[in-house]
């Protein structure tokens, strides 16, 4: 079987299952084919797309499927194993679109239960032995400015604002984390650092980095509002209006502090 053809089918199948979960989770979970439940088939699919031997592009929709399963299945599945697989896959990916898809799984967890998710991630380790929470935060801060998609960007910004009270606490597990402050860009679908950064990476506290990200997002919001006033943008957005409003409100509040 052609490898690219197979990966496209697996990727498309994952998106199809996610759509089924969103529209009729109870009906799907009632399916039993020759003694194998739909949930078991779904877990097999997730394990396959997150397999380290699979191309990273096969995991493009794995993040969305994992988030959907976590949301709808709750304690009905061992989500811990799925999250460990997502973390492992994240460490082997290079394309920013794939990294974003996998990071959003953790970002949504942060939005749902920040403290609980942080504690859980601290129990995970990457294949190289790095603390799961530290690795996720570094990767997130590294590519946040390259996030694509309005919904994903807003969800990430909302989560970052929730981190601020914790980051200002010296006893926080994030207090001693430093991240790269290099300028990132995309060349040929891969992340690259500026030529200046390649001569010597600049490390700054994660608190400073998140402040810088939020300041840039605040600037973006102001520019969008100015454009709306000029009639260049339609301010109506049915799909993610709630996230958009919450992100703007929280960033505006931070800006006034």
Give an account of the 3D structure:
With 257 residues, the chain is mainly alpha-helical. The chain is 64% helix and 7% strand. It contains eleven helices and six strands. It has helices at 3-29, 38-49, 62-73, 79-92, 96-112, 114-121, 132-143, 150-167, 195-198, 206-229, 241-256, and strands at residues 32-33, 36-37, 178-180, 184-187, 190-193, 203-205. The strands form three sheets. It has a two-stranded antiparallel sheet. Strands 3-6 form a two-stranded antiparallel ribbon. Strand 1 and strand 2 (36-37) form a beta hairpin. Helix 5 packs across helix 6. 29% of the residues are buried.
Summed over residues and divided by their number, the pLDDT gives a mean of 78
User: Could you tell me the radius of gyration in angstroms?
Assistant: 19 Å
Q: H/E element string?
A: HEEHHHHHHHEEEHEHH
**Uncertain parts:** 235-240
Estimate the global geometry from the Cα principal axes: globular
Output the number of helix runs.
Answer: 11
Structural class: mainly alpha
Largest sheet: 2 strands, antiparallel
Strands, count: 6
Order of strands side by side in the largest beta sheet? 1-2
Q: Which range does the strand content fall in?
A: 5-15%
Portion of residues within helices: 55-70%
How many angstroms does the end-to-end distance come to?
58 Å
